[in-house]
Amino acid sequence: MAPPDRDRRPILCGEVRTSVLRTSEALTARTAAQLLNLRPDEHVLLSERPNLRVASPQLLTGVDCRLPSLNGSRPRAVGTVAARAVLTEGRVLQASAFARLVPGGGDHRKPWGHYLLRPGVVEPLGRHQDGEFTEGFLAAAPLPGGVLNPGAVAERLLDEVLRHRLLDQRAPFKSGRTRLRWVALPAAGDGVTSIERFTVAADGLRTVALRVAPADPSAVAALCEDLALHDWLLTTLVALVERSRLGSGDREAVLTALRPVVDHLLHLWMPGARVPDVLSGVWETLERRPGFSRQWQALVQRIRDQVALQTVSLPRPVLADS
Amino acid sequence: MLVFAASDKGGTGRSVTSSNVAYRRALAGDDVCYLDFDFGSPTAAAVFDVPGASRGVASAGLHSHLQGRHTEPHRIDVWAESEHDELRYRPTGSGRLVLLPGDRDGGEFAIGKDTVRRCVNLFLQLESEFDVVVVDLSAGRSYAVDMVLEATAQPELQGVLSRWLVFHRWTHQHVIAAHGLVFGERGIVAGGVERGHDKGALRDSIRFVRAAVPDPESPLWSHVPLAQSEWMRKCDRDLTELAAELELGYARLLGKIPLEPVLQWREQLITDEDVLASKVAGMATRQALEELAAALVDDEAWERQ
């Protein structure tokens, strides 16, 4: 029998959208802070170790919507979705939005003041099933209109930041956006954090289901931002290497095509750098299989080998001149 | 690069020619995206032979995206979803070919500030992902033309290269109409200037494409009586003169597509199979499309004044 609502631990759901920052040069810490200064009353978060990461203050969006499900029962839910923008090394921009589904919201909508006191909490009105929600939310198809959609909140935020006048709209290479939609269910008992699924669907959509030990919701969201960042890096590197026609085209053209990769991407790989210990099991699993870092390192090695071969085959006078 | 395909009237072969250009760019290795902004009759999917979307998609097409009803516009990977035998296998070395279809029950719509903002976001996002973004606009001075003029006048799009292709048939009426569409009182240039475009820069970003051009020297007409052949040559000369007077002359000409039954009747992509194996399409047409696709990204062709 399902436990009564008040004993259920809340589940978290969210979406991260990742894009290259459309600017010819990576932003410095100072300009990045200006870019992400989205609320006059709160400071941006800036961290320089082990790499530069700037995060905007949290923004809240009020929602009165239906919860997605596969069986068509769509209970109403009211509350706020929390969102923020994160910029890594002044080059990769992410917008991340999430909500905590807290049961026990009663049967009727309360005054907004009630919801504003609970930032990032969405309260279902009436009963809902966690399993139904998870399946409906993670279904690969785009979410229908009118249902809880943190992705739409993230998309708006991403577009807003990307139109900032600090940006010259000239990205150093072509790349797509990725969307990582995630759900975090409480781990059984005191359980440990683990990843239940990671799927790669068409159109840059990834879905992730986690079981998490008790942790701060924003730390879980940050873990998903980290997963999304590295998935985007890998996706983008694979696409750029493929486009460069490495191994088939003429070597000079290949190197010209790969140059932005060396300049802007290779130093960004640092999986799990800021993930707290209690959540680190997720990265350990992913590194074992499918082995994110393994694939990344293999690609990086191919690129370095090409650069080395090109240097070796340069005519002597060119080497002497430089 | 954003490429806007416009035409004075319907029936100029704008959609079918610009689709063919998109296809040729993808074959050349560019990542290409094709947007169906022909809101009145979204039929680009038919040209790419994508089943189930030939008259636009049921939901999440470009209309509903621009009107704010869907965050994600529907994307069709042409290499994966086309039913055309030659398109189903993506050739080695080719780039992506993605179609963003319109909505089946679309139609023109009024343009507000939010629509323009969504349009700017869409262009910026696609431009950062694709080498060439072809935007197929409804014929005439439509809402679609107004919207993209408004969008490209926004400061965010100033750093993005935009080029216009204006398609017209090679007839007296069509040459005059194409001149009106671009240089007329209510034309693209005047409309752009009204919205903050620089007049010279906008004019320089517009080139004409002559469609369905009969070639009097073609072997097709070699058996016609002398009088008729003389008459055809004279018409062609007169039209050339008229075009030059109306600023549609060689300096602003990007390509010439011959009269081609396959383009007229089948309205589909012309593949090498059509030209070399089944021989239903002419070599000259394939050549013209290839040249147009090359000229589109050739900066020299765009510097001629």
From TrEMBL, chain A:
<protein>
    <submittedName>
        <fullName>Uncharacterized protein</fullName>
    </submittedName>
</protein>
<dbReference type="InterPro" id="IPR049749">
    <property type="entry name" value="SCO2521-like"/>
</dbReference>
TrEMBL record, chain B:
<protein>
    <submittedName>
        <fullName>ParA family protein</fullName>
    </submittedName>
</protein>
<dbReference type="InterPro" id="IPR027417">
    <property type="entry name" value="P-loop_NTPase"/>
</dbReference>
<dbReference type="InterPro" id="IPR050625">
    <property type="entry name" value="ParA/MinD_ATPase"/>
</dbReference>
<keyword id="KW-0067">ATP-binding</keyword>
<keyword id="KW-0547">Nucleotide-binding</keyword>
